[in-house]
Design a protein that fits this description.
Pfam families: BIR (PF00653)
InterPro entries: Baculoviral_IAP, BIR_rpt
Number of strands: 7
Strand order of the largest sheet: 1-2-3-7
CATH architecture of the largest domain: Orthogonal Bundle
Protein name: Inhibitor of apoptosis repeat-containing protein
Number of domains: 2
Keywords: Metal-binding, Zinc
GO molecular function, one term: metal ion binding
Order of helices and strands: HHEEEHHHHEEEHHHE
Radius of gyration: 19 Å
Number of helices: 9
CATH superfamily of the largest domain: Inhibitor Of Apoptosis Protein (2mihbC-IAP-1), Chain A
Distance between the termini: 19 Å
Shape: globular
Largest sheet: 4 strands, antiparallel
Helix content: 10-25%
């Protein structure tokens, strides 16, 4: 479930049957909910229901389970509040909102949230090492997981086994990594050529026309059609942080004994209490 599209598809696949139950289970909430299949998938969740919790979702990385979603519950805010100290995806993706001002410009008030900080680099690294990064097994390959994380990338595959990596700050996505590619330099070149600011490289001077812009939905390095999937190094097709529709109102939930579908189980006192916040969806574990 590390592939975004697979998580999205989990909400629309064939209705699920659990333990021989006679009724089908499908995603129950309307499209006007803040928590939609797309926003939940982008926040790291896939659909993992049971007869008792028909809207239960699970984070592919940390195993966090949430259910009983209310109309205004925001998957990004809730995931970050509950798992921001231990889940790499919650840190690098869902926490982006906390780094932005009302104009969607990056303003880092916490030094540990700076893109070049060790905690953020460590979280990005975990997106590569979670299920294995193919070039870590190639001797002297320059695009190792550590170098990719240091360069500001997270692993963002569009299909199992590909090597697409994305900077969530500026939207640059690159694939087709060669043994002598320097991830930092490749990233830097794309930022310079696009003219779009990236907080990974504050030393790069951006023209005035871009200074007050928000991060774009898509940028392209070539002339490929926008509908085509990203392929070679140099293409750039990643999404940027989604704007918040409403303030999260997640409440402290009751706990359940059901184990997560992932082997990486949630731990810690916060999980036993169910996390912070008030109102809205509840934690299952």
């Amino acid at each position: 479930m590390q592939v975004l599209q697979n998580r999205i598809n989990s909400f629309s696949s064939k209705p699920k049957r659990k333990q021989g139950k006679s009724h089908n289970i499908k995603w129950p909430h309307p499209e006007y909910f803040t928590a939609t299949p797309v926003t939940l998938a982008e926040a790291g969740f896939y659909y993992d229901p049971s007869p008792e919790d028909v809207d239960n979702v699970t984070c592919y990385m940390c195993g966090k389970e949430l259910s009983e979603w209310a109309e205004d519950d925001d998957p990004f805010d809730i995931h970050f509040k509950k798992c921001g100290k231990k889940c790499a995806w919650a840190v690098v993706r869902c926490g982006l909102r906390s780094d932005m001002d009302q104009k969607n410009k990056f303003v880092f008030t916490d030094k540990n949230r700076l893109p070049t900080s060790k905690p953020m680099e460590k979280a990005r690294l975990e997106t590569f090492t979670y299920d294995g990064w193919q070039y870590d097994s190639v001797k002297n390959h320059s695009a190792s997981s550590r170098e990719m994380a240091r360069a500001g990338f997270v692993y963002s595959p569009v299909e199992v086994g590909d090597d697409l990596a994305t900077c969530l700050y500026c939207g640059v996505s690159l694939s087709g990594w060669e043994p002598d590619d320097d991830p930092t330099e490749e990233h830097r070149k794309r930022v310079k050529s696009s003219g779009i600011p990236c907080p990974m490289f504050p030393d790069i001077v951006i023209s005035k026309s871009y200074k007050d812009t928000t991060v774009p939905t898509k940028i392209h390095d070539g002339e490929e059609d926008e509908d085509e999937a990203p392929a070679r190094a140099g293409s750039s097709t990643s999404k940027t942080p989604r704007s918040s529709h409403a303030k999260s109102t997640a409440k402290t939930p009751r706990s359940r004994a059901r184990s997560s579908s992932k082997s990486r189980k949630a731990t810690g006192e916060e999980e036993r209490r169910g996390g912070g916040g008030g109102g809205g969806c509840r934690t299952r574990r």
